[in-house]
Specification:
Layout (H helix, E strand, L loop, with lengths): L4 E2 L20 H14 L4 E3 L9 E5 L14 E11 L5 E6 L9 E6 L1 E7 L5 E7 L1 H13 L10 H6 L1 H8 L9 E2 L5
Parallel strand pairs: 1-9
Antiparallel strand pairs: 2-3, 3-4, 4-7, 5-6, 7-8
């Protein structure tokens, strides 16, 4: 089932997501719905808070970018309870990022190029990987969502000021998307 993407301004995006256990209700269905939602939205990654669920779950399939970033070929991930460790030799590189929860906004974000990630898969089998390049960026971006961090939080105050009107328009629901969304209307 394709779920709505929760947009900037909705409180669910600013809550830290707790770890989940193997008895998390509806885990398989949630992961399948996240996949369907991401593909329908032309995304390359999605975190559970973006579909309104505060749980440490991420799905990534950035293989559509494999021509430009070869490390993305055939790399699909269900990350449950992921934890990222920045490696000492993690050089920072600035690249443009966007987000399904922030439609129409693309800004350069500086991130390390090499990380170690620990997570469990859908069967709760533990994994540890050292990841580099654009895949490391995608993983950092999606895992940030689980810690209530959006890519715009990495921007300088001047850059944030320059996009303030776009952010306010998203909050006000003045945004056009080719996918289902859910904004936040305060009472």
């Amino acid at each position: 089932m394709i779920l709505p993407i929760y947009l900037y301004g909705h409180p669910v995006l600013r809550k830290v997501s707790p770890d989940i256990t193997p008895d998390f209700p509806g885990l398989h269905d949630l992961v399948e719905n996240m996949k369907a939602t991401m593909y329908a939205s032309d995304g390359i990654g999605i975190a559970a808070p973006q579909v309104g669920v505060n749980a440490r779950i991420v799905y990534i399939d950035a293989s559509v970018l494999a021509d430009t970033f070869p490390e993305l070929a055939d790399r699909k991930y269900v990350l449950i309870n992921p934890r990222i460790e920045v490696l000492e030799d993690g050089e920072k590189v600035s690249r443009e990022e966007g987000c399904l929860s922030l439609p129409g906004i693309h800004e350069p974000v500086s991130r390390v190029e090499k990380i170690r990630i620990n997570y469990v898969d859908e069967q709760f089998k533990p994994h540890e990987e050292v990841v580099s390049g654009y895949l490391a960026r995608v993983m950092q971006h999606e895992c940030d969502h689980l810690d209530a961090v959006l890519f715009i939080d990495h921007l300088s105050p001047i850059r944030k000021q320059l996009i303030r009107n776009k952010l306010n328009n998203i909050i006000k629901g003045k945004v056009n998307c080719d996918y289902r969304t859910k904004g936040y209307k305060s009472k």
